[in-house]
Design goal:
- The chain is an alpha/beta fold and 258 residues long.
- It folds into 2 domains: 202 residues, Rossmann fold (3-Layer(aba) Sandwich), CATH 3.40.50; 27 residues.
- It is built from 5 helices and 13 strands.
- The strands form 2 sheets. It has a 10-stranded mixed beta sheet with strand order 2-1-3-4-12-11-10-7-8-13, sandwiched between helices.
- Strand 5 and strand 6 form a beta hairpin.
- Helix 1 packs across helix 4.
Length: 258
């Protein structure tokens, strides 16, 4: 699994995606958007297509028929995710053992260290001893394809992650405080664990968005994609300035022709 093969894919634009109620092959669950940010939604759309995934709060009903589920308990969702996992640990482990693919991520802003099931622990300390401002895709991560698209292996953030994960895992991304993205085979399925914040806190930004897309594709075992970069605010400003200049030139030409 770690030597997952790569595919060439057409560039897919990032799209926003609203909650749906239909059954889907690919599922994203969170209590509320972490930091009121929808970069996770954009990554799901980039990898699976804007209409091929569903979004909801934490529940086990949506696991039925799903090939891949992404649980994010970052920001003020950590306590609810901890409770959900604690009450459904056997279900989650059986889902993966039966062939499901699962990604559990949490960069808490509340609570404390808690179990993610599967013999894995997420370590969180509000004093920030578990926070990482630097992240590196290690050799195993490169072999897994996390640098697909030629993206960087080194990242910074404030913070890139709030938590670390430990257990019988293979680390693919190491933070300054410990592993922040690790994986394991479990029965017939595959599961990943992370402590990462949303990509709006990560630099370089375009590469960070590509990294999250690569993580999702890798864990879900679907083709890697090359998401179109979302322009940074300063690029928008340059575009607007350029349009303004073009308009000015057009007006001058029109006036000269009169």
């Amino acid at each position: 699994m770690l030597a997952k093969f790569k595919f060439n894919a057409i560039a897919i634009a990032f799209f926003a995606f609203s909650s749906t109620t239909y059954a889907a092959d690919y599922v994203y669950q969170t209590s509320q958007d972490p930091w009121e940010n929808k970069t996770n939604d954009s990554a799901m759309s980039a990898v699976f297509g804007a209409t091929n995934w569903s979004k909801s709060g934490y529940n086990i009903a949506d696991f039925s028929g799903a090939k891949f589920v992404f649980l994010d308990g970052s920001d003020n969702n950590a306590n609810e995710l901890s409770s959900f996992i604690g009450g459904n640990q056997s279900f989650l482990e059986n889902y993966v053992a039966g062939g499901g693919h699962l990604f559990i991520n949490s960069a808490p802003n509340e609570g404390e260290t808690f179990s993610l099931g599967f013999g894995v622990t997420l370590h969180y300390d509000s004093a920030q001893s578990t926070h990482s401002s630097v992240a590196t895709i290690n050799t195993a991560g490169v072999s897994a394809g996390l640098t697909y698209g030629g993206i960087a292996t080194e990242y910074t953030g404030s913070f890139f992650s709030h938590a670390t994960v430990t257990g019988p895992l293979t680390s693919l991304i190491d933070g300054s405080a410990g592993s922040i993205f690790s994986v394991m085979d479990w029965g017939s399925g595959f599961v990943a664990f992370g402590g990462q914040t949303t990509t709006n806190f990560h630099y370089p930004g375009v590469d960070a968005r590509g990294l999250l897309a690569n993580e999702l594709a890798y864990v879900a075992s679907v083709p890697f994609v090359s998401p179109l970069p979302i322009p940074e605010p300063e690029i928008y400003a340059m575009l607007l300035a350029g349009l303004g200049l073009l308009g000015f030139v057009a007006r001058r030409r029109k006036e000269s022709a009169i």
